[in-house]
């Protein structure tokens, strides 16, 4: 079984990544470490830089995940600044910014950057489309789960326990990464 190290302190990211990659014969272990998060226009750029940094520092193959909430009416904000936005204004602040706004379309982008030691990272992306709710609701998950309604649903992600919530996210990046890693070992 092929093995990669996910750099994160987020247990939900670890569980989800294991669930998505193990069917491809990829074992995922974990290390929590601080990485440099550059200011950039996309989650892909941030993930790639962090993956390369961690791979060089640890001298091993690394997977780093970065994500962002991109709101149409806010010209893609908070985008790559999602974590900062969460820490400062949170859901209530974002909802306040959208007060009176009819266009509540948004997408949640997830960038998976895989970096083999000594090489440049390869990035795979997923996009989950949806809308921003008028108010927070739900009791499961964290952060934007309480205001993001994925397409095809009538309630926020906060209304779904871990397994069904994870199944609502676009997992195309995990599938592409799984196939990429399978082809590398063949």
Short description:
This protein is of the alpha/beta class and 186 residues long. It is built from six helices and seven strands. The protein has one domain: Alpha-Beta Complex (Maf protein), CATH 3.90.950.
Describe the structure.
By secondary structure, the chain is of the alpha/beta class. It has one domain (2-185): Maf protein. The chain has six helices and seven strands; from the N terminus they run βαβαββααβββαα. It has helices at 11-21, 43-58, 82-88, 90-97, 162-168, 172-185, and strands at 2-7, 26-31, 62-71, 78-79, 105-115, 122-132, 148-150. Strands 1, 2, 3, 4, 5, 6 and 7 form a seven-stranded mixed β-sheet that branches. Helix 3 (82-88) packs across helix 4.
Principal-axis shape equals: globular
Coarse structural class: alpha/beta
CATH topology name: Maf protein
In the CATH scheme, the class would be: Alpha Beta
The low-pLDDT segments are: none
Largest sheet: 7 strands, mixed
Q: What gyration radius follows from the Cα positions, in whole Å? A: 17 Å
Count helical runs: 6
Helix content: 25-40%
Number of domains: 1
Q: How are helices and strands ordered from N to C?
A: EHEHEEHHEEEHH
CATH architecture group name? Alpha-Beta Complex
In angstroms, what separates the terminal alpha carbons?
A: 12 Å
């Amino acid at each position: 079984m092929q093995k990669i190290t996910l750099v994160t302190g987020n247990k939900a990211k670890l569980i989800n990544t294991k669930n998505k990659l193990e069917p491809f014969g990829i074992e995922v272990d974990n290390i929590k470490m601080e990485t440099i998060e550059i200011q950039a226009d996309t989650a892909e750029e941030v993930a790639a830089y962090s993956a390369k940094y961690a791979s060089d520092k640890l001298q091993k193959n690394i997977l780093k995940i970065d994500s962002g909430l991109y709101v149409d009416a806010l010209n893609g904000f908070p985008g790559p600044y999602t974590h900062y936005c969460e820490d400062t204004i949170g859901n209530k602040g974002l909802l306040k910014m959208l007060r009176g706004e009819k266009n509540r379309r948004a997408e949640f982008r997830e960038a998976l950057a895989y970096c083999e030691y000594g090489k440049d990272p390869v990035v795979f992306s997923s996009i989950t489309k949806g809308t921003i709710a008028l108010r927070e609701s739900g009791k499961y998950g964290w952060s934007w789960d309480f205001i993001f309604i994925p397409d095809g649903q009538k309630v926020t992600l906060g209304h779904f326990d871990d397994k069904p919530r994870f199944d609502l996210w676009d997992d195309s990046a995990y599938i592409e990464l799984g196939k990429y890693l399978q082809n590398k070992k063949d």
